[in-house]
From TrEMBL:
Localization per Swiss-Prot or TrEMBL: Endoplasmic reticulum membrane
UniProt-annotated binding residues for heme: C429
Family stated for the protein in its record: Belongs to the cytochrome P450 family.
The keyword Transmembrane helix belongs to this UniProt entry's keyword annotation: yes
Full protein: residues contained: 583 to 1069 of 1069
One Gene Ontology MF term: sterol 14-demethylase activity
Alphabetical UniProt keywords: Endoplasmic reticulum, Heme, Iron, Membrane, Metal-binding, Monooxygenase, Oxidoreductase, Transmembrane, Transmembrane helix
GO CC annotations on file: endoplasmic reticulum membrane
Annotated protein name in UniProt: Cytochrome P450
């Protein structure tokens, strides 16, 4: 009754709930995409729900994506939401523990190291890591077997990312202490830390110890590299060691160390969740896995050579696999912003007050039949021009040619594409190209070595685990593998 009587006509409709503070926390938390879709049907594209006592306004669809992700800096703020979670994990003075203008400069420093030139070096590094992983892993001994694929993909992701982005010296430490330390850091990302960030949670001691230890490992490495006067390996650490903020201030070592942690953590969950989904999708469609193998044989020859960056461009289906998997399984389902001043919603009488948090969910438009025919179907071929399931996205929204620089390089000005797995606007992902190179290389190498199928031979796909901040396949996600004869 209260929810009906005290309804403010200028505020978005409030999702009905029985209990004041809990609100819709449980239905949202169990399956966010379903929650968004069901409530969009009931209340329209813009609605509010109670998340742990906080009025949270969801605005889905392309206009919602634009409204939130391209919000002006005086209207919306990301760091206010994320800092409680990220600062203890990354460390001080980077990403969300500094003014936004500083983050923009830091993103620019990191992006400089993510060029085509760098990717040419990364592909052989990544493919070697994948080969050597499958060779030494006891789970892939023999001709065939079954395996819970997600933890394997998590390991492959950390080995490939750390080696490519941070160099061999850091990579080698992942066989020893670093893997455990990163695991402890990771506990800082559990949702309970988000809810109870003020509480002395027992595992936070280990998180804080891990943060200090990992930061010291990076700082010692920086010092050694500086003493050696190194100029050879132009990886991200090297670029940061040679970067200056506006005004000529060099990036301090502790900030370089903290950015190294942030970079690895930012990519780890999203990339490893995506590669796990790809492997599970391939196991459910062995015919597509065969097409991928054939694509490589046709494009690169039967005697498959070492993979190069240029080779990846010759494998359009391999590229489409990543694109289509991110359409259905984007690991970041909710992107949040604090509201800094009342925000009128264009074309409506609605105004979002500063007491609300805004939530963008680009996954909703990515699975909207209006843009993607048969949206729930995983069909990598839909990205081919003449496919019956090709997306109905006009050129102007698909490839917005108007570009803007928020301080870290040019990005598309509009956020109105229905397909935004890497976000948009000033907080847009800088790791998109790296993630694509990494994922495409991992998939191509895996397809060369193995045939996958579901253990029961069906086309079924496992459900999604939303219990962590990044969504991923439920575990155990067991698939059957068989080595190709030629290996
Ligand atoms: C930001 C997705 C991989 C580094 C973002 C955002 C999304 C995203 C949606 C926007 C978050 C927001 O607006 O609040 C993904 C996906 C990935 C991926 C789906 C892989 C499949 C990576 C990798 C790196 C990375 C590999 C590092 C090499 C970053 C950074 C930001 C970001 C630094 C900027 C945060 C900000 O400005 O607030 N990513 N990402 N990401 N990502 Fe990624």
């Amino acid at each position: 009754l209260q929810q009906v009587l005290f309804k403010n006509p200028n505020e978005p409709p409030l999702v009905f709930h029985w209990f004041p503070v809990i609100g819709s926390t449980i239905t949202y938390g169990m399956d966010p995409p379903r929650f968004f879709k069901e409530n969009r049907e009931k209340y329209g594209e813009c609605f509010t729900f109670i998340l742990l006592g906080k009025k949270t306004t969801v605005y889905v669809g392309t206009q919602g994506n634009e409204f939130i992700l391209n919000g002006k800096i005086r209207d919306v703020c990301a760091e206010e939401i994320y800092t409680v979670l990220t600062t203890p994990v990354f460390g001080k003075d980077v990403v969300y523990d500094c003014p936004n203008s500083k983050l923009m400069e830091q993103k620019k420093f990191m992006k400089v190291a993510l060029t085509t030139e760098a990717f040419r070096q990364y592909v052989p590094i990544i493919s070697d890591e994948v080969l050597s992983y499958f060779k030494r892993s006891p789970d892939f001994k023999g001709k065939s077997g079954t395996v819970n694929i997600s933890p394997k993909m998590a390991q492959i992701t950390i080995f490939t990312a750390s080696h490519a982005l941070q160099g061999k010296e850091i990579r080698d430490q992942f066989d020893e202490s670093l893997a455990d330390l990163y695991h402890d850091l990771d506990m800082g990302f559990s949702p309970v830390n988000f809810m109870l960030h003020w509480a002395p949670l027992p595992w936070n001691k280990r998180r804080d110890h891990a943060q200090r230890t990992v930061a010291k490992i990076y700082m010692d490495t920086i010092k050694r590299r500086r003493e050696r006067g190194e100029t050879g390996a132009q990886d991200i650490m090297w670029h940061l060691m040679n970067s200056e903020y506006k005004g000529g201030v060099k990036v301090p070592d502790h900030e370089i160390a903290h950015m190294m942690i942030a970079l690895l953590m930012a990519g780890q969950h999203s990339s490893s969740s995506t590669s796990s989904w790809i492997m599970l999708r391939l196991a459910s469609r062995p015919d597509i896995m065969e097409e991928l193998y054939q694509e490589q044989v046709d494009a690169l020859g039967a005697d498959l050579p070492e993979l190069t960056y240029e080779d990846l461009a010759k494998l359009p289906l391999n590229q489409a696999i990543v694109k289509e998997t991110l359409r259905l399984h984007a690991p970041i389902h909710s992107i949040m912003r604090a509201v800094k001043q009342p925000m009128p919603v264009p074309g409506t009488k609605l105004v979002i007050p500063t007491s609300h948090v805004l939530l963008a969910a680009p996954g909703v438009s990515a699975t909207d039949p209006h843009y993607f025919p048969n949206p729930e179907l995983w069909d990598p071929h839909r990205w081919e021009k003449d496919s019956p399931n090709a997306p109905a996205i006009s050129r102007s929204t698909a490839e917005d040619e108007d570009m803007i620089d928020y301080g870290y390089g040019l990005v598309s000005k509009g956020a109105s594409s229905p397909y935004l797995p890497f976000g948009a606007g000033r907080h847009r992902c800088i790791g998109e190209q790296f993630a694509n190179v990494q994922l495409q290389t991992i998939v191509a190498m895996t397809v060369r070595l193995f045939k996958f199928r579901n253990v029961d031979g069906s086309n079924k796909v496992i459900g999604t685990d939303y219990a962590s901040l990044f969504s991923r396949p439920l575990e155990p996600a067991v698939i059957a593998w068989e080595r190709r004869d030629s290996n």
